[in-house]
Specification:
single chain; 181 residues; alpha/beta; five-stranded parallel beta sheet; 5 strands; 13% strand
Length: 181
Amino acid sequence: MNPQTNGSRWSVVLLLMAMAGLAHFNRVAVIILLTCTVQASALNVLFVSVSGAGHVIPMLELAKGMRNHNVTFLTRQGAQAYVNLNAHLSPSFRVIYANDSPNALQDEKDFEHQMYLSLTGRSFLDVMSDGVPTLGTLIVPVLNKTLHVLMNERFDVVVAGKMVFGVSLLCDTIRIPCVIQ
């Protein structure tokens, strides 16, 4: 909040109190309390999603619906292939990428392409034995960035996709409510 605005707000409050007199102080105090409460009621929400279309699109739609709250959207660079997250940037909506290096998007595309080529045409059991460790390499950077963000910032609630394994345990450990979507 701008200190100049804050100072002028308090000068208006003092003027109102002087005009109302001490007998009406309770009414003025309630009005001031309600004004401050409405401004401070915005939640700080962290959305965590992997970059798959079926995961990031519903999470983004949910985040867009939270207009009166401060939303931080954490995902992989690959989400840009499905949604334009930069179109939604505002003072109350920001995006954090798990890997923010300049060539991260191309690296993720190459990795997913190699994964697709190596898993195609194989039996389900073979895919499961190779797919689970591969899934871990996709999720670990998101979890690391989530942990880093949660250690440095305060959030009222975390909303995470089902594919981001471990977020509920992380939220329980640091005592932040968590919603698995």
